[in-house]
Amino acid sequence: MKKEMLKIDREKLEQQLAELPLYQYMFLTPGDLTFTERVRHICRTECPMYNTTWACPPAVGTVEACREKCLKFTSMLVISTITEVSDIANIDETLATRAPHEAVTHQVVELVRAQTGGDVYALSTEACAICEKCAWPDAPCRHPERMFPCVESHGILVTELAEKFGLDFVNGNYVTWYSLIFYSEPSAGENSDHG
Length: 195
What we know:
It contains six helices and four strands. By secondary structure, it is of the alpha+beta class. 31% of the residues are buried.
């Protein structure tokens, strides 16, 4: 039996988002995204997480497969958080700010899921850090409901997305984290009595 898709009550969702420690958010459509092999090349040649986790390539699939997965959804919510650190060059201090962002991302995913009654797919920061050692490639992900693949793993360049839509990357000793939450709403006339 197919789950009924519900329309988001955007006003209610925005009230809920205002209660969270978000820096910015924006509603877009997956069609607004640019997917590029250039980003995947950077993953493959420069990122130490490549081929080590279910949240990163090649485990997430080809860029084209990732694009298709994202474009199956009709809507997208982009969220960001910022955290001040004493030294932006201190990678350990910078990475320590990920956990609060991931927690907020989980909260937003649940808010969206509660309203749509359907599938929600989220992309978030860096590689997944739920398990000390990822099960990739020997076994399935231990926490697929909690694991968010990395935005860049799907060939999406966050800086380009932010620039295109006027979202900020705060400079100085601030870490800016982004997540993308994909969901679907009924088309006009379909289940329009909801929301």
